[in-house]
Amino acid sequence: xxxxxxxxxxxxxxxxxxxxxxxxxxxxxxxxxxxxxxxxxxxxxxxxxxxxxxxxxxxxxxxxxxxxxxxxxxxxxxxxxxxxxxxxxxxxxxxxxxxxxxxxxxxxxxxxxxxxxxxxxxxxx
Length: 125
Description:
Blueprint: H1 2-14, E1 23-34, E2 44-55, E3 60-72, E4 80-94, E5 100-109, H2 113-123
Antiparallel strand pairs: 1-2, 2-3, 3-4, 4-5
């Protein structure tokens, strides 16, 4: 369960996008996940997501995102799709006109009913 929550948090900082000093931008994220949870019938999945962002100036921006982590299927149970919505504050430090570093701080919101299938499957081991 802790690995799943960690993966959810890290996905919030995994995406990147190109933006000018100010204005709107859009980005698409694609990633691969794997688990060592033995009670799942599938051990890997491909997740996709997207975000919309707005850069207020060259130092500060905000993003809203949606991430679909794919679905999980316990060996004894039905499939459950895992997805989340997020909100990020983005701080940017430009080194030059071409190079900058950014830091995202945010949160993902995920309905708990998606985690019930994982918790149930973990108890079946």
